[in-house]
Design goal:
- Two copies of one chain form a homodimer.
- In chain A, the strands form three sheets. In chain A, strands 8, 12, 13, 14, 15, 16 and 17 form a seven-stranded mixed β-sheet that branches. The first copy, chain A, has a six-stranded antiparallel β-sheet with strand order 2-1-7-6-4-5.
- The two termini of chain A are 29 Å apart.
- In chain A, 28% of the residues lie in helices and 31% in strands.
- Chain A contains eight helices and 17 strands.
- The first copy, chain A, folds into two domains: 106 residues, Aminotransferase class 4, branched-chain amino acid transferase, N-terminal domain (D-amino Acid Aminotransferase, Chain A, domain 1); 152 residues, D-amino Acid Aminotransferase, subunit A, domain 2 (D-amino Acid Aminotransferase, Chain A, domain 2, Alpha-Beta Barrel).
- The interface between A and B is large, with 59 and 59 residues.
- Strand 3 of chain A pairs antiparallel with strand 3 of chain B, so a sheet runs across the interface.
């Protein structure tokens, strides 16, 4: 791990990232030592920092630090946390705070190959996401809702779960973005009130554009979702998992999902 | 500072308190070296830990560690953070995680004495609190909403601000609980959907019980609040600040607020 460029596995206990979750993060795949889709991840990181008025370190600095951690040519997962920095008591940030950057690399998790080929059986979480338009879309460090939703999945030993918002709209997985296909149109939920807008979500939208397939950002409730031809979840670490089973939904064939899955694995996209 | 009982000002960069805000905290006054209302604060801390299924350290351990930090007989402010502990990547907690405890003591802030005698002019925040019944009332580490609201107050140089929720109900201050008096009845907002239930809020309710004054937990919107006879904000560090001015509200006399203010300062209550 590198903390502010130094080999270190600790941070100040006065960091606002700990005190208030006052920071943002990204998790990305490293393939044969090279961060995958680096440019996209950096742009998201900078966007999220700007939304919280945190000064984002430069792309060059972060990439060079990341590369110094990725000397092994193994597939791994990198995580970048940027916090607002060390602060005194009190919610309001002080002027001129220096952001803390924390970079770590760990071995890639090996997921069950059937999650990719046959798809997953997904839980529908009891937890409902609250609305906060000022923070929606941002991958910030306030993630207790995800912790609670992921705990539900872990208890049931399901690999992922779908989360609805307080109005009953389906928003995402616990750590992934949601898409579905109906009548040759791709759909993904609107994230203006809650949820995280991931890099992989943007890439799927790019895939649709490349194919001249319409991709619409909409609101959907569970009963409508169950009418979809295909449903899948994406994120930068898992790639794409088709959904095989939900209460009231059963699909064994996922032709479009498999096509997108393959496309996402290509480093040129 | 003490981290897990050791003199230390750093924590693991893999702590879930940093990664996800997966933990709780309390801030309390220390008067002449003695933590004020310790028993109440500990019960809240334990309640909040239980709500997140974090194992709370014993009251004896925390109090003895706190006392070892409070050797100076000065008035100070203590902060206790309990996180779920160190974790690997992934939102779901692992079994058997050992909580991290972080105790710190800092000099008490000296507030403007007029905030107590004449009251404060309060900002009405643009930020609206989202609803999350599973986390409402808990003083957890996901505090970005408070950071954004407090930033608004800091920009305007106002000592506190009122926050409404997404439905337009007035919930609290940015770091304090709200009360108002109308026709000899005390009122405070319902916190079932959002907000933090502080120790000082419980003490004000106890005061009302002692006086046989009704204290009702209700929902209120800003226009109704402006009709109140008195409005005040409380927390464990500031004590009680009457509200002197809000857009559409102006009061120079706060007789009941002053009475409660005095009562709260008494260590026997």
């Amino acid at each position: 791990m590198l903390v502010n460029g130094q080999l270190n596995d600790s941070i100040s206990a006065l960091d606002r990232g700990l005190a208030y979750g006052d920071g943002v993060f990204r998790t990305l795949s490293v393939k044969r030592g090279v961060p995958f889709n680096w440019q996209r991840h950096y742009l998201k990181l900078r966007h999220d920092c700007e939304a919280l008025q945190i000064t984002c370190p430069s792309a060059e600095l972060l990439l060079s630090e990341l590369q110094s951690l990725c000397t092994q040519q193994q597939d791994s997962v990198a995580k970048i946390i940027i916090t607002r920095g060390i602060g005194q008591r009190g919610y309001a940030p002080s002027a001129g705070q220096v952001a803390t950057r924390i970079l770590s690399v760990s071995l890639a998790t090996q997921f069950n190959p059937e999650f990719y080929s046959s798809g997953i059986s997904a839980h529908v979480c009891r937890l409902k996401l609250g609305h906060q338009p000022l923070l929606a879309g941002i991958k910030h460090l306030n993630r207790l809702e995800n912790v609670l939703a992921a705990s539900e999945c872990a208890e049931l030993d399901t690999p992922e779960g779908l989360i609805e918002d307080e109005d009953g709209l389906v928003i995402s997985g616990t750590r992934s973005n949601l898409f579905w296909l109906s009548d040759s149109t791709l759909y993904t939920p609107d994230l203006k009130q809650c949820g995280v807008a991931g890099v992989q979500r943007d890439r799927v939208i790019d895939w649709a554009n490349e194919q001249d397939m319409p991709c619409k950002i909409v609101s959907i409730r569970m009963p409508q979702l169950l009418d979809a031809d295909e449903i899948f979840l994406v994120n930068s670490v898992i790639g794409l998992w088709p959904i095989r089973k939900l209460p009231g939904y059963n699909r064994t064939i996922h032709p479009v999902s498999w096509q997108i899955q393959k496309w996402l694995n290509d480093e040129n996209h």
